[in-house]
Fold this protein.
Amino acid sequence: MLEDVKYTIANSHLVSTTRKEREVSIAQVDVKADELVAAYANPNFKSWYCMVIYELGVERTEAIQERASRGRFPARLFSKLAKEAIKTKRNGR
């Protein structure tokens, strides 16, 4: 069902996007998850990192990682910010 098309109104124009275009590939998720494991030295959380990347996308994950890198405990801050972003996304805000 990757070929299903969803239509939305954006700026008074009809825009179509396939689910396939919006999703992150498995290879992208795996590469980014490996980067997060290396950055935070936490291999036990690789599956959680994969979920975060798949849920939020690579760009949003990188933005959160950039923001977390300025914190006192980057790994903890990344987890907190990622959880908040996922919660916000799921609640539709």
Remarks:
- Residues 23-90 form one domain.
- Helices lie at 19-22, 26-40, 46-56, 58-68, 74-90.
